[in-house]
TrEMBL record:
PANTHER family: ATP-DEPENDENT DNA HELICASE, PTHR10492. This is ATP-dependent DNA helicase. GO terms for biological process: DNA recombination; DNA repair; telomere maintenance. Its cofactor is Mg(2+). GO terms for molecular function: 5'-3' DNA helicase activity; ATP binding; hydrolase activity. Pfam families: PIF1 (PF05970), Pif1_2B_dom (PF21530). It catalyses: ATP + H2O = ADP + phosphate + H(+). SUPFAM superfamilies: P-loop containing nucleoside triphosphate hydrolases. Residues 53-234 form the DNA helicase Pif1-like DEAD-box helicase domain. Keywords: ATP-binding, DNA damage, DNA recombination, DNA repair, Helicase, Hydrolase, Nucleotide-binding. Residues 305-342 form the DNA helicase Pif1-like 2B domain.
């Protein structure tokens, strides 16, 4: 703290050997050791030039970014970390969104979008002092956003060097969901991604491969997902090019929804489980939600006047927030919460995962109207 050690405050030092033993993987090397080795090599590259880092989910990206932040801030340096979405920003150390960090409005960025940052403002001072700028989930940004960032940094640093000669790290995974382009077809989406930004050529590309979340017996499934994401699965002549065959060993052969629910949530149903079932269509989601909510052994409470007309909840059920309320407390679009108490105009809940896990929050009834002019409903 402020350049001083724990010993100076007569505080015990952490047992690093014990910490390493807690995360020993099946090969005998600790995950901390593997990540530290990777960090050392990538940090050296990042100190020399900009870095574009890619890796599948579970490969340690978030851990790496927060480690960069902790190490550099511990050395008295300034680090700016931001994300393309609010839910991603909650995973970062003092993270914020791209728009709020660089004062870029409106949310739809075009080729002519500029920043509202004044040269003598506090954020401009932070940018000038920053030793490292990290962009999380950069794959969800448009090429116009990356171009706007480049212009901002050159303007504040008062030079014409790429990104104002600041060290910038872009992180993400192109195998996951890309950005959403309103009414955009496949070609429009591809045109808009940051891979088509000319400024991306200024970045060194690094890749993470080891999945830190893989448990014993699931490596084959993880490898198959990577092959699928890379688009290198073998083609089956009898199937359309847009159809893939999922190996039988990854399927629940019983076609009943009850079997799927038991597999994911246990039997009997585990209250406050953080597992989830991903549905491609809303009608499937509603059907499965109704089946699950009936298994929760509590009284049902129904809230009306929302887009689907009825929201059915029970104490112990899990719900997902659909509105950005307070990103500093982790209340963003996509935040998952456990229901603890249901009242007429407020819900008491606990954040289920992430940096704010365990935080108790009150969710009031809020009147909402969509920004999209094509949608005319009003919900509360």
């Amino acid at each position: 703290m402020n350049g001083r050690t724990l010993e100076e405050f007569h505080l015990p030092l952490p047992d690093f050997q014990m910490i390493s033993q807690l995360v020993v993987n099946e090969n005998g090397d600790s995950e901390i050791t593997m990540v530290e080795k990777r960090l050392m090599g990538e940090t050296m590259v990042a100190q020399l030039d900009n870095t574009s880092q890619h890796g599948p989910g579970g490969s340690g990206k978030t851990f790496m970014y927060n480690t960069f932040g902790n190490v550099l801030e511990g050395q008295g340096k300034t680090v700016i970390m931001f994300a393309s979405t609010r839910i991603a920003a909650t995973l970062l150390l003092n993270g914020a969104t791209y728009h709020s960090t660089f004062k870029i409005y409106p949310s739809i960025i075009t080729d002519t979008t500029t920043s509202k940052i004044e040269e003598h403002s506090y954020i401009a001072k932070l940018i000038r002092e920053a030793s490292l700028i990290i962009c999380y989930e950069a794959t969800m940004m448009t090429r116009y956003a990356l171009k706007a960032l480049e212009k901002i940094l050159r303007k504040i640093m008062k030079n014409n060097l790429p990104y104002g000669k600041k060290v910038v790290v872009l992180g993400g995974d192109f195998r996951q969901c890309l950005l959403v382009v309103k009414h955009g077809k496949r070609v429009k989406v591809v045109e808009t991604i940051i891979k088509n930004c000319p400024f991306l050529s200024h970045f060194h590309q690094l890749k993470l491969h080891q999945n830190m979340r893989t448990v014993a017996g699931s490596q084959k499934h993880a490898d198959w997902l990577i092959t699928l994401g890379n688009g290198t699965l073998p083609r089956i002549p009898s199937l359309s090019p847009w159809v893939i065959e999922i190996p039988q060993e990854f399927l629940i052969l019983d076609q009943k929804l009850e079997s799927l629910i038991r597999y994911v949530f246990g039997d009997p149903y585990v209250v406050e489980s953080i597992n989830a079932i991903i549905c491609p269509k809303n009608r499937d989601c509603l059907n499965i939600n109704n089946l699950i909510i009936n298994k929760v052994p509590e009284n049902l409470k129904t809230y009306k006047r929302i887009p689907q007309h009825e929201l059915k909840l029970k104490i112990g059920a899990i719900m997902i927030l659909l509105k950005n309320i307070n990103s500093r407390q982790g209340l963003c679009y996509g935040t998952r919460l456990f229901v603890k108490e249901l009242r007429d105009d407020v819900i008491l809940a606990i954040i289920a995962a992430g940096k704010h896990k365990g935080l108790k929050v009150f969710l009031p009834r809020i009147t909402m109207s969509p920004a999209d002019s094509l949608l005319t409903y009003l919900s509360t």
